[in-house]
Amino acid sequence: MAVTYGQAHALASKRLSAGSLAHSERVAEEADRLAGLYGVDSSEARLAGILHDLCRDTPHDELVGAAVAAGIPITDVDRAVPYLLHGPVAAAELAEMIPGLSPEVIEAVRSHTYGGTTLSPLAMIVYVADVSEPGRPHESSALLRSRAGSVSLAELFASAYAASMHHLIDNRRLIHPATLSTWNDIVLRERA
Ligand SMILES: [Fe+2]
Ligand SMILES: [Fe+2]
């Protein structure tokens, strides 16, 4: 049976702090707007948006334990920054908890922390919405929102990903191997 936005919101509200829930609501709204601009199912976009951070507030040791239990590969970067596992762990939990959720929504949740090399339009939309929802303070977020609809989704996603990479480097953060693979894939596709 298909899950409704109200059911997904109720689940998110049980698991998230007020701040994380408000962020997820804004991501759902922005993903809905982007879906309209790029011809993607808006119901799926709203579901993925409200659910993408389901494990964002989960304690780090629990994230590592849940990742091991779900068979998610754990790299040295995941051990150093367990927060990055909140996407893959949420995807694994959702697949178990909500059988009616589409594989595309689950994939969008999974890939929102460190990308993926075969991202669907829905996954790209959720990634962009996550980094550019109106609560994000960076200048690059407002720029992404203003460019939505005037450039291709692939270009918007590439710009969002580039901004994230800049942020990681500027703040001397570790870069997950999957993030690097995603970036290389973006560049190779642009050159193809
Ligand atoms: Fe997240
Ligand atoms: Fe988020």
Q: Strand share of the residues?
A: under 5%
Identify every distinct bound molecule in the structure, by name, code or SMILES.
fe (ii) ion
Q: What is the level-2 CATH architecture name?
A: Orthogonal Bundle
Class derived from helix and strand content = mainly alpha
The low-pLDDT segments are: none
Structural shape: globular
Q: Please indicate the count of domains.
A: 1
Rg result = 16 Å
CATH superfamily: Hypothetical protein af1432
- Proportion of helical residues: 55-70%
Number of strands: 0
**Total helix count?**
11
Distance between the termini: 40 Å
Order of helices and strands: HHHHHHHHHHH
**Topology-level CATH name:** Hypothetical protein af1432
Q: What number is the mean pLDDT? A: 96
Largest sheet: none
> What is the C-level CATH assignment?
Mainly Alpha
Written description of the protein model:
- There is one protein chain.
- The protein has helices at 5-15, 18-38, 42-51, 60-70, 76-80, 86-97, 103-111, 121-132, 139-147, 153-170, 177-191.
- It has 192 residues and is mainly alpha-helical.
- It has a single domain, classed as Hypothetical protein af1432 (Orthogonal Bundle), CATH 1.10.3210.
- α7 crosses α8.
- It starts with a helix and ends with a helix.
- The model has no long low-confidence stretch (mean pLDDT 96).
- The structure holds fe (ii) ion (2 copies).
- One fe (ii) ion is lined by residues 23, 27, 52-53, 130.
- One fe (ii) ion binds next to α6.
Topology, please?
Layout: H1 5-15, H2 18-38, H3 42-51, H4 60-70, H5 76-80, H6 86-97, H7 103-111, H8 121-132, H9 139-147, H10 153-170, H11 177-191
Helix pairs in contact: 1-3, 2-3, 2-8, 3-7, 3-8, 4-6, 6-7, 7-8, 8-10, 9-10, 10-11
This protein binds fe (ii) ion (FE2) (2 copies).
Residues 52-53, 56, 86-87, 112-113 line the site of one fe (ii) ion (FE2).
